[in-house]
Amino acid sequence: MTLVTRTRARAVETLTLDSPDNRNALSAALVGELADALTDAGKDTDVRAIVLTHTGNTFSAGADLRDPPPPQALTGLLRQIVELPKPVVARITGHVRAGGLGLLAACDIAAASTEATFAFTEVRIGVAPAVISLPLLPRTDPRALARYYLTGERFDAPAATTTGLLTTHGDDVDATLAPILDGLRRAAPDALAETKRLLTAKVLETFDRDAADLTALSARLFSSPQAREGMTAFLERRDPAWVV
After folding, report:
1. Which residue of 19, 60, 139, 237 has the smallest Cβ count within 10 Å?
2. Molecular function terms in GO for this entry (predicted)?
3. What does the alpha-carbon distance between residue 105 and residue 219 come to, in Å, rounded to a whole number?
C-alpha cells in the first residue's frame, strides 16, 4: 500500500500523505516512503518546488504509537526537508498534532485553512516535543509557543500564524497558496537553492548542536513508565493516572 502519493503540475511536485485510516500518523513505513519521495524530488531537475499535503481531515497525528519510527529516522527526515535544495511548502486543511508539527516546521513555507487546528500533545502522554524542537524553536516565538508546549492545548490557525508556525492562513488554502507557488515558479532554480541555504543556516546549526541530545532524550522519554501509562491511556481513551 502506498502511503505517500506523488503528482506534478507546472514544476511543482505534490507529495500527499495518504494514510487517513490512522490520521497519517508517522509510522516507520510512512517516514521511509516520504524520505524516498523527497530524495527523488530533490534530484529531479524538472521540479522547482515541493508541496507537502494530506488526505483526510488530519495532516498528521504525530508518531504512530503502534509502529513508531526510530527517533533517528524522524530526526533524519526533518533535517532532509530543511536541507533539500528546493523549497518545501506545507498545505494544511485539517488537524496537526505532536510530531506532525515537526514536519510542518521543517517546511520553508506553511499555509493552512482556517479549519486547521494544532496541538503539542506530547506532555499529555508523558513525553516532550524533543526532536521536533530542532526545526520548531529557531522559527517560532518562544514566548508564544511556551503555552502550547507546556499545556498541550489545541490552538487555531490565526494563533499558529502569530507564533510563526504558519506563514499564512485563509478560508481557501489553495487561493492563499496560488501567488506563493507562482512566485516559486518564477524564481531561478539555483537562486532558490542558495536563498534557501541562507534561510535555513540557523536551523541547521541547531541540528548540528542539539540533534544527538534531543534524539536521545526522545528515546529515553518514550521508554519511561510515564510514557507507557500515557500511551496506554491514550489507546484506551481514558485519562492517564497523573491527571488531577
Report:
1. 237
2. catalytic activity
3. 21
